[in-house]
């Protein structure tokens, strides 16, 4: 399908600008905080929230914020709160460096009309206290155990890692779930002095936004959920969905390599090459100067995945794969397991995507299913990573998967990709089905989120946020 359906979209009543509320917390104090490489207009502030709203004695957390002020104050549409994903992604960094599309021409009108707000969710980056752990990953621990001994070793390691996180982080770790983040978002809204706010969330940011809309529908002026998660799907179902989506993305990459002069592996059987590289990783034959030791297959697969999610990065990914047998540093540097935000990724993830595995036979059955749907790429997908890391985790989950119906909101735009390796299109469809006033825009380009992979999707997002015009039902952005 072509995108001409967008031109025939029904016009909605123009969205009203955010208006001041009569009561609430003191207004935020914004101060200039530009640094080299950031937008020169960026300003910073913070808002204080309870760590546990049911137990104020546990103290408070400080949520770090920043803002790119609207360039056209006379036609300002309100505040646009953003989240770049994760869990563990820094909203302040993404805004300061004009990430998540704000440096593109399609989003210029959003910058003109909105105060764009970034925030670091509780426990993340500049917000304090921060989630602090030792190393919740050990390359010697098998994430695909095949027997009781292997399962027990995995569970014992993750239990010890969680206990260390809890000791270093304190009570915030037990309250780092998305339901608490939703309450923090509303505290930010109140501190901004506005009755309603708009939301632009990518990936994990779609879960925050959807939960906010379900709880506070009348406080949503507009909402974009791009690269949509579906928190109604069980961890077991989501694991298989995502594993299959990663496999599909590798086939898309291989097809691109066959014809693109930018692919460093052009002329080779890319999937066979990838399988061979993973096998060498299993045998400890892939060196990484970055690690100072051979890279494991898990580390190689994780680094490759992080290059797979944005199609414009595929030339760089192909070169990293081609060079890996001499030095896999470019892959291991990109690996989720070596990133600074990995502890927060697991600390939050275990609340929202807890382990469904009751024992070794259960886990092995799930692993076998993953290998069936993803024969090349089974070693790394995000839901498998989180759920296995949460097997034995000592902190009880506060926000496990559950369905929520969203009604009474302004129109909400959900964006999903036909070849998204991180958040499969079936998730976007599932989420949209539970939003009374929801519209799904599909993009056909490969990669995670329309914002990063489709100029057509960016244009539709900007048009909706500024004017209230949503795409027509069934609209598709072509590749």
From TrEMBL:
Q: Which Gene3D superfamilies match?
A: alpha/beta hydrolase (3.40.50.1820)
KW Signal (keyword) present: yes
> Taxonomically, which superkingdom?
Bacteria
Entry keyword Nucleus? no
Q: Name one GO molecular function term.
A: hydrolase activity
Q: Which residues form the Peptidase S33 tripeptidyl aminopeptidase-like C-terminal domain?
A: 381-477
Query: Which UniProt keywords are given for this protein, alphabetically ordered?
Result: Hydrolase, Signal
Among PANTHER family, the record links this protein to:
PROLINE IMINOPEPTIDASE (PTHR43722)
The name this protein goes by in its record:
Alpha/beta hydrolase
Q: Which organism is it from?
A: Amycolatopsis minnesotensis
């Amino acid at each position: 399908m072509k995108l001409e359906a967008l031109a025939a979209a029904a016009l909605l009543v123009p969205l009203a600008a955010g208006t001041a509320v009569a009561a609430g917390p003191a207004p935020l104090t914004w101060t200039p905080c530009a640094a080299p490489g950031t937008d020169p207009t960026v300003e910073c502030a913070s808002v204080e929230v309870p760590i546990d709203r049911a137990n104020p004695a546990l103290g408070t957390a400080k949520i770090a914020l920043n803002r790119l002020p609207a360039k056209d104050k006379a036609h300002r549409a309100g505040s646009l709160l953003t989240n770049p994903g994760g869990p563990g992604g820094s909203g302040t960094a993404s805004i300061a460096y004009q990430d998540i599309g704000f440096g593109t021409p399609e989003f210029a009108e959003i910058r003109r009309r909105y105060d764009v707000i970034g925030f670091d969710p509780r426990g993340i980056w500049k917000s304090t206290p921060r989630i602090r752990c030792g190393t919740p990953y050990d390359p010697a621990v098998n994430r695909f155990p095949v027997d009781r001994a292997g399962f027990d070793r995995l569970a014992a390691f993750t239990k010890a890692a969680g206990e260390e996180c809890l000791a270093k982080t304190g009570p915030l770790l037990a309250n780092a779930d998305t339901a608490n983040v939703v309450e923090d978002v509303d505290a930010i809204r109140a501190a901004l002095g506005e009755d309603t706010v708009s939301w632009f969330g990518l990936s994990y940011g779609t879960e925050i936004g959807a939960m906010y809309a379900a709880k506070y529908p009348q406080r949503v002026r507009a909402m974009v959920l791009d690269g949509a998660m579906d928190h109604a799907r069980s961890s077991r179902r989501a694991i298989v969905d995502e594993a299959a989506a990663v496999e599909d993305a590798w086939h898309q990459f291989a097809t691109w390599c066959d014809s693109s002069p930018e692919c460093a592996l052009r002329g080779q059987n890319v999937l066979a090459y990838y399988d061979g590289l993973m096998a060498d990783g299993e045998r400890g034959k892939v060196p990484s100067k970055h690690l100072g030791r051979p890279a494991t297959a898990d580390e190689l697969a994780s680094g490759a995945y992080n290059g797979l999610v944005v199609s414009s990065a595929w030339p760089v990914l192909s070169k990293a794969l081609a060079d890996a047998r001499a030095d896999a540093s470019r892959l291991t540097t990109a690996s989720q397991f070596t990133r600074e935000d990995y502890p927060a990724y697991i600390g939050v993830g275990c609340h929202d995507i807890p382990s469904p595995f009751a024992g070794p036979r259960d886990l092995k059955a799930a692993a076998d299913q993953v290998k069936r749907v993803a024969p090349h790429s089974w070693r790394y997908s995000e839901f498998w990573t989180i759920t296995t890391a949460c097997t034995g985790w000592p902190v009880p989950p506060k926000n496990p998967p559950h369905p929520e119906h969203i009604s009474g909101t302004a129109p909400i735009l959900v964006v999903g990709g036909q070849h998204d390796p991180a958040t499969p299109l079936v998730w976007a469809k599932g989420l949209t089905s539970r939003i009374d006033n929801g519209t799904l825009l599909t993009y056909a380009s490969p990669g995670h989120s329309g914002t990063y992979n489709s100029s057509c999707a960016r244009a539709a997002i900007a048009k909706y946020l500024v004017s209230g015009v949503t795409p027509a039902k069934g609209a598709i952005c072509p590749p």
